């Protein structure tokens, strides 16, 4: 299992010290998918691993993508309590049955952009389906969130990730088409806030 143990946000530095980016921001590029499957605010974050040198300059994108929840997702809002999480997508499909072996990743389930990864059930009766957002092979799911759902809310970008997906080599440069950059995502969130304020 991939170990992701980086701080959620960089530790604040004093005015005299330069701001040092967290390991997550140094080695992963954040991409976003807003309103997944047309459901308002159900935003996902895709952390794409990148190859960097010691200065943090990106040489080339890597294929590995870590699927997480964006900060604006309803599950991460204050007062929301997760009752349970399930990787059982249907009667005949469970992401827990994904078994990967060998150099060519035999046995890995293939996912489309809209393929469901898991379902999150909350105490208020709401149910949320988390999708892959990128095409590729399912490398692993995070079974830790099954035993301790709260880490998905406490550390969504690190220990609380959903799954790891490996896009096809020939699609590694095009997987971000249709996704939002950090800046574009922030603009979407601001527009939502302004729209809500205007109608209240």
TrEMBL record:
Keyword match Nucleus: yes
Top-rank lineage group of the source organism: Eukaryota
GO BP of this protein: dendrite morphogenesis; regulation of actin filament polymerization; regulation of filopodium assembly
Keyword Nucleus recorded: yes
CC annotations in GO: dendrite; filopodium tip; growth cone; lamellipodium; nuclear speck
Signal peptide bounds: none
Cellular localisation: Cell projection, Dendrite; Cell projection, Growth cone; Cell projection, Lamellipodium; Nucleus speckle
Gene Ontology molecular function: actin filament binding; actin monomer binding
InterPro entries: Abitram, GCV_H/Fam206, Single_hybrid_motif
Keywords: Cell projection, Nucleus
Subunit structure: Interacts with F-actin. Interacts with G-actin.
Entry's family note: Belongs to the ABITRAM family.
Protein name, as recorded: Protein Abitram
Organism annotation: Phocoena sinus (Vaquita)
Underlying gene: LOC116755739
